[in-house]
Amino acid sequence: MRHMGISDNSAGRQYGSQAVIKDMALGFDGKKVMTVSCLKKPDGTFGVTLIRWEINPKSLNQE
Questions:
Q1: Which residues have CB under 8 Å from 23's CB, separation 6+?
Q2: Strand pairing partners for 38?
Q3: What 3-state DSSP class applies to 14?
Q4: Domain residue spans in the chain?
């Protein structure tokens, strides 16, 4: 798995105007497999709030 980018999650503003939520894409061979959404906590660290599969995990081949 490789990190494929981080983007702001504007839908996370429903949790409050100060909520900072980032989406990190993970994948391999240039194909996005999952998105992990992280919420910035008051101490500055991030916690995982949602893991979303972008493809059906059963379609991943194991070689």
A1: 6, 7, 8, 9, 35, 36, 37, 38
A2: 22, 48
A3: helix
A4: 2-54
